[in-house]
Amino acid sequence: MTVPPWGAMARLVARRALLAVPVLLVVTFGVFAIAAASPFDPVKAYAGTAALGADQETLDRLRENLGVDRPFAERWWEWLTSAAGGDFGQSSVMRQPVAEVIGERLVWSALLCAVAFAVAVLLGTVLGVLAARRPGSPLDRAVTSLAYALEAAPVFWIALLAIWLFALKLDVLPAGGLTDTGSEHVTAGQLLSHLVLPAGVLAVSQLPWFTLYVRQGVGDALAEDPVRGARARGLSERTVLLGHALRSGLLPVLTLIGSRVPELITGALLVESVFSWPGIAAATVEAATAVDFPLLAALTTLATAAVLAGNLLADLLYGLTDPRVKLSEM
Amino acid sequence: MADTTVEKTNATGAAGAAWRGHGAARRSTHTLRLRVSAALVAVTALAVLLVPPLVQLDQQAVDLSAKLLPPGWSHPFGTDDVGRDLLLRCVYGLRVSLLVGVVAALTATVIGTAVGATAGALGGWVDRAVMRLVDTVSSVPHLLLGIFIVAMFRPGVWPVVVSVALTHWLSTARIVRAEVLSLRSRPYIDAAVSGGASRWRVAVRHLLPGVLPQAGLAAVLMIPHAMWHESALSFLGLGLPTHTASLGTLIQGARGSLLAGQWWPTLFPGLFLIIPTLAIAGLAGVWRERINPRRRSELML
């Protein structure tokens, strides 16, 4: 393998970072515009039940203090300038600065997503290759129909059934949370046993898509000339399948890995709320039910940044693995 | 390859099947798939349309003597934690979910077709600006944007429809724009332009009919997506209110009894979501082969 083209990669990253700035500006502006159009009153949310008994003067003063009487473009700009300095405001539902909420929870979400994604990619590749080896075989049909059925199944439903089976019927895994009830510290063993079920369900929800694409890619590659040539040279079936068909069949899958980030976030949102996993996604749902605008705005921005980073990662991977593609042209 | 020969083997009949045995096998699964999907969609539509007028369900009525009965003869799907028949509730829930799905998918398709056709027909900087906007909106995860919109406009039927429609028009806009761009270079468009047709007339009379099959396909495929989104929002407690229970609300409501070991209130609403999805995907796959026989039917969802 040749040395990776660090310079070209750095230039691509820099270019994408520049392009991300207007996207994030538009997204945050849109978020503030939606909030301004909503019938929801931030003053009442801030004051809670106390707003019912308060007189108009107090409410007006509160309104002035919170700055919600100003046009939303002005508030957007103010939020943006303080966000650039790392201050995303105060979360009303968590009673904590938003940056702190995100910082505490990011690591758990990242752990869950990374494990699930790795499992989905590995298992999806294996199943896809097995299915593509003999198209139309019972194994292929079983894998394909299972993949379609899983793709159609809502992930929260799978999660609930998994809890029922593994935590209630078989009683082998805990039903949710990060640690056992009553324990103060997070230990590696407990974390592992609590991670299996959420990560497994999230992996299963991402699995069908990988399996079907790998099956398609490898199946196509098996019909192409390089594979025929390799067979004609008398290479073993294993070498042909893994060395030739899988290598070229995985290329299109690789580009799409990065574009799966939105689906991963969506899946994590549902899985985390079912398993009460203390991650970012669960915080999103809490923030949404309590209409905690600063937290929601920060989370939307963060998710958008994650999606953009995923796209960049996909392009980088593609540029590295496919010598026909030049990084400087992306 | 085998799928593309289906039309041909149909035309040449048994002779065609004789020289291509593999094709015949594929054809039989193909027609089987079509028939099963069509039958399932028909059953779903009939159930949703006929059952509610025939069997009234009072969403508030409780019968605690019959609570949490396992599936049996009098209640094929069992009963829920306040003794309501689950089969009936699932049909009602499917009706709500399907209604929201269809309305949202239609709205999204209309928005997407309008935006995509405008971008494709006008071209130039309008096209570039619109597609940049589409890219920007699509970099926000759908469910997150949906949650944000619903949270800001309090849960209810219309915020859910709006949030699903606003997050799903992007793919349609892309498909329609690509189709318009490819149609624009056809000779009959040149003929219409040199015949003195206005821009509006070319767009509405010549371009729009050409993209309608693709847009229709996108709309049909979007219905399961929209249903999925609606049930995910309802499941998170941000969707429909409990008196208009959708499938997601049913699953959410069954969480308590699931933890007590009763699986049926959770299992059946989920199945009601999967089966129409697969049936619609099967039908859409056949439709896609028909409007574009050269392309292999690959991923249906």
Q: What can you see in these coordinates?
A:
- The complex is a heterodimer of chains A (330) and B (301).
- Chain A is mainly α and 330 residues long.
- Chain A contains 14 helices and 2 strands.
- A two-stranded antiparallel sheet of chain A has the order 1-2.
- In chain A, strand 1 and strand 2 form a beta hairpin.
- The radius of gyration of chain A is 24 Å and the shape is globular.
- With 301 residues, chain B is mainly α.
- In chain B, helix 4 packs across helix 10 and helix 4 runs parallel beside helix 12.
- The N terminus and C terminus of chain B are likely disordered.
- The chains are: A mainly alpha (330), B mainly alpha (301).
- At the A-B interface, helix 1, helix 7, helix 8, helix 9 and helix 12 of A face helix 5, helix 6, helix 9, helix 11 and helix 12 of B.
Name its key features:
heterodimer; A: mainly alpha; two-stranded antiparallel ribbon; 14 helices; B: 301 residues; MetI-like fold; 12 helices; elongated; disordered N terminus
Write a brief structural summary.
The complex is a heterodimer of chains A (330) and B (301). Chain A is an all-alpha fold and 330 residues long.
Give me the secondary-structure topology:
The complex is a heterodimer of chains A (330) and B (301).
Chain A (H helix, E strand, L loop, with lengths): L5 H32 L4 H6 L2 H4 L2 H11 L5 H13 L5 E2 L4 E2 H36 L4 H15 L2 H15 L18 H35 L2 H8 L4 H22 L2 H14 L5 H10 L3 H29 L9
Antiparallel strand pairs in A: 1-2
Chain B lengths: L5 H7 L1 H6 L1 H34 L31 H37 L1 H15 L3 H11 L4 H28 L2 H8 L4 H37 L11 H7 L1 H5 L4 H28 L10
Helix pairs in contact in B: 3-4, 3-12, 4-5, 4-7, 4-9, 4-10, 4-12, 5-7, 6-7, 7-9, 8-9, 9-10, 9-12, 10-12
